[in-house]
Specification:
Strand content of chain B: under 5%
Oligomer: heterodimer
Largest sheet of chain B: none
CATH superfamily of chain B: Amino acid/polyamine transporter I
Strand content of chain A: 25-35%
Helix content of chain B: over 70%
Order of helices and strands of chain A: HEEEHEEHHEHHHEEEHEEHEHHHHE
Number of helices of chain A: 13
Number of domains of chain A: 2
CATH class of chain B: Mainly Alpha
Largest interface: A-B, 21 and 25 residues
Distance between the termini of chain A: 90 Å
Shape of chain A: globular
Number of helices of chain B: 14
Radius of gyration of chain A: 26 Å
Shape of chain B: globular
Radius of gyration of chain B: 20 Å
Number of strands of chain B: 0
CATH architecture of chain B: Up-down Bundle
Number of domains of chain B: 1
Structural class of chain B: mainly alpha
Largest sheet of chain A: 9 strands, mixed
Structural class of chain A: alpha/beta
CATH topology of chain B: Amino acid/polyamine transporter I
């Protein structure tokens, strides 16, 4: 019995030593970084800013986040990410924790003047990163300024941006996706852009007056080739295989009325026959449409009218999407993944083309085919 | 000290999955990129063949361990010398595995804990299991840990279902070609499964027929896991990123996010991996010390186990200070001569001699 007690006592003491408590930080010793901004600083250095949520502050009555600040911005300059981060850490009372980061904002200036691919090394090598955070490009202001902005609904601007993307665009803009796309030879990347307008009153509140969402089309070196607005960007997203478009509005033939549809089950297929000679690619997109608003004179209880608007919608959308494709093609950045498709289908042909794919992509003849099925006209025929 | 077939299955499959989880995928991926699952498949088949040959040898010498039957078949001097090669192999695997495991823990979880504490804890656990219970204790542990370990290993592959894109392994063959695929196999096959332990373990099996079936199944489960995880790594990350990953299967767990709620499950992976490692290390320590006791004729193998632990500790500490030693998986002498010699050369020779003897005896 005595021996058993001694053993039990001994093991209990050992648990204290061997449980790894030496490496453990209590939550009140941690600073949760939810957003990181990367800006360009002088002398080729970079400025890292961390948006840290202040956890010690209890939310005011009713759990709302209105009123005071719920975050602080910590920033420092350095030759690489780690150096800047260490500078921040030395000035901070809590250990910075990156595992829960949801957003990395990079300023346009940094994109233009530095090689963004270099930050991927830190993201991949350091096990503290989760690679689930989204990367956005900030236009019109520094990335740090974006982090400083207040969101009217959410406690932090980075949470707001993340939720906005989840609600509206299903495309995955995580840093992992960006790294995979950058490493592959036949796909170029697209990034969400947040354009910050100079505000007159100096208000820092995020609203439709101060920010505009766009998308940037990047080339292999991650330089910005062109920027499209969010409606067009959603279509590009659709054509690169994501369900980013949620609805469309098209003008009716007479130019007076409009038709609006909700779209779902978005599909995309790339198809090529004898690409060696014809260089022709067919991009066919499919979806199901539900009519939600009709300001034309048409009575849609008539099946003939339904067929007419379905065909008209397909034609109209085909025209619009063809324009978008032509535009992106002119920039020579294959965000649709056509190169990757050809790589998989014609691997031997691809070997000679992959080196200079951006140029070859410009010469391709990409044709859009739209096939949307009208599923429903809604609750009424015609009022 | 007899063990059933059921724990045998778990011991063989755990110790094979442990090696294949961190070495072969990376080595194959570097060479054959999106076709590395073919390399893994070929390598797995080669190692299945090796396991089968070793089982044949064991079946011919049911009542003896490797140390005795190699002496029988090759003569005392030659047999005793060749067995040393196996001892070295086990010692080498013990120390590389421990080093890799401790480094991994230091990198991922325990940044400040001194390495020596981790090494001593690991070694103490293994030697305690061997000293107190011998193979019986290890097999019981394997039986308890095995199901959880294997279920976790298989299930975590599918938690990334959201990001799986099967087209990422295309085009098959065209980009790499046979030379690269075979090169990938050549670099990786030695690390896919772990056949030599059965040369010692088979002697302890209660029912030889079911035990041999258990060993083959255990190897097959590990081999299938190796191929499946290679495929999933490719599906999720694509060949370009995958070929740069040092711990591909661990990386998979970091990507997991289900409903924005289940995230950061990598801590589970590390835990289960440690459990599996404990089984593997103690099995190795047991066969090494038992083999040495038979080799020297000194009956107290438990004392030898304690002594071997000190040697093992010394090697681990030494090799953790010399980076080259603990990272020489791609050493050409090792994979070109040493592994084929111990996995195929000697077992084939033993099998041949055994069969010849049988054939000579039977007509009389």
């Amino acid at each position: 019995m005595l021996r058993f007690m001694a053993l039990a006592f001994f093991s209990l003491i050992m648990i204290l030593f061997f449980s790894g408590c030496t490496d453990f930080d209590e939550p009140n010793q941690l600073a949760f970084v939810l957003g990181t901004a990367i800006d360009r600083a002088d002398n080729g250095e970079m400025e890292i800013s961390h948006q840290v949520v202040i956890t010690s502050q209890a939310p005011s009555k009713g759990g709302s986040f209105g009123g005071s600040n719920h975050f602080i911005i910590l920033s420092a300059k350095g030759k690489d990410i780690y150096e800047a981060q260490q500078k921040i850490q030395r000035e901070t009372s809590r250990r910075l924790m990156m595992n829960h980061r949801i957003l990395i904002a990079i300023s346009e200036e940094y994109f233009n003047q530095n090689d963004v691919r270099k930050i991927f090394d830190k993201l991949g090598r350091d096990p503290a990163n989760n690679l689930r955070d989204i990367i956005v490009l900030i236009k019109g202001a520094s990335a740090k300024q974006f982090l400083k902005m207040k969101h009217p609904m959410e406690p932090l601007s980075s949470i707001g941006e993340d939720k906005k993307m989840q609600t509206n665009a299903i495309r995955n803009f995580s840093s992992r996706t960006l790294i995979i796309e950058t490493l592959s030879e036949g796909t170029r990347s697209m990034l969400p852009v947040i354009q910050i307008k100079p505000s007159k009153k100096g208000s820092n509140l995020m609203s439709t007056n101060t920010i505009v969402s766009k998308y940037a089309v990047l080339d292999k070196q991650l330089k910005v080739k062109g920027i499209v607005d969010d409606v067009e960007g959603a279509k590009v997203g659709w054509m690169s295989g994501n369900e980013t478009v949620q609805g469309i509005t098209i003008p009716w033939k007479d130019g007076i009325g409009y038709l609006s549809f909700r779209l779902n089950h978005l599909k995309r297929r790339i198809h090529a026959v004898r690409v060696e000679e014809s260089k022709q690619i067919i991009m066919s997109v499919k979806a199901q449409a539900y009519l939600l608003e009709n300001t034309t004179q048409l009575n849609l209880s008539e099946v003939d009218n339904m067929i007419v608007i379905q065909n008209y919608m397909n034609k109209q959308l085909e025209k619009e999407m063809q324009q978008t494709v032509d535009k992106v093609q002119n920039w020579g950045a294959d965000v649709f993944g056509i190169g990757e498709y050809l790589h998989r289908k014609y691997p031997y042909w691809w070997k000679s083309k992959k080196e200079d794919w951006d140029q070859h992509f410009k010469e391709m003849d990409v044709k859009v085919q739209v096939n949307i099925e009208l599923k429903s006209i809604g609750m009424i025929g015609k009022l | 000290m007899k063990i059933g077939s059921y724990p045998m299955f778990w011991m063989v499959s755990i110790s094979s999955i442990i090696v294949s989880s961190f070495l072969p995928i990376r080595l194959a991926m570097e060479e054959s990129r999106q076709d590395c699952w073919i390399s893994m498949l070929l390598g797995g088949m080669i190692m299945m063949a090796a396991t089968w040959i070793m089982l044949r040898v064991c079946m011919q010498n049911k009542d003896k361990t490797l140390v005795f039957f190699i002496k029988d078949l090759l003569g005392t001097l030659l047999g005793k010398t060749i067995v040393i090669v196996y001892f070295l192999l086990w010692l080498w695997q013990l120390s590389t595995l421990t080093t890799a495991m401790v480094e991994f823990q230091n990198l991922i979880l325990l940044h400040n804990t001194p390495t020596i504490v981790l090494i001593v804890c690991t070694l103490f656990l293994a030697v305690y299991a061997v000293y107190r219970g011998g193979l019986t204790a290890i097999s019981r542990c394997a039986e308890a840990i095995g199901p959880f370990f294997i279920i976790f290993c298989y299930s975590h592959l599918f938690l990334n279902f959201k990001y799986i894109d099967m087209k990422r392994i295309l085009p098959i063959y065209a980009d790499s070609g046979w030379i690269h695929i075979l090169k990938g196999t050549f670099y990786s096959y030695n690390y896919i499964v772990d056949p030599t332990i059965i040369l010692m373990l088979f002697f302890f099996a209660e029912n030889k027929r079911t035990a041999s079936r258990a060993i083959l199944w255990g190897t097959a489960v590990a081999m299938i896991w190796g191929i499946l995880s290679t495929l999933v790594v490719l599906f999720v990350t694509g060949p370009n990123l995958a070929s740069e990953l040092v711990h591909p299967t661990y990386y998979l767990t970091k990507f997991v996010t289900i409903l924005n709620f289940i995230q950061n499950i990598d801590s589970f992976y590390v835990t289960f991996w440690m459990f599996g490692n404990f089984i593997k290390l103690s099995v190795y320590l047991f066969i090494l010390s038992y083999g040495l006791s038979e080799w020297t004729g000194y009956k107290n193998w438990k004392l030898i186990a304690c002594f071997m632990t000190i040697v093992w500790l010394a090697i681990v500490i030494y090799s953790s200070h010399h980076i080259r030693i603990s990272h020489s998986f791609k050493n050409l002498y090792l994979i070109g001569y040493f592994y084929p010699f111990v996995y195929f050369g000697i077992p084939l020779l033993l099998w041949l001699i055994g069969s010849l003897r049988k054939a000579v005896k039977q007509p009389l």
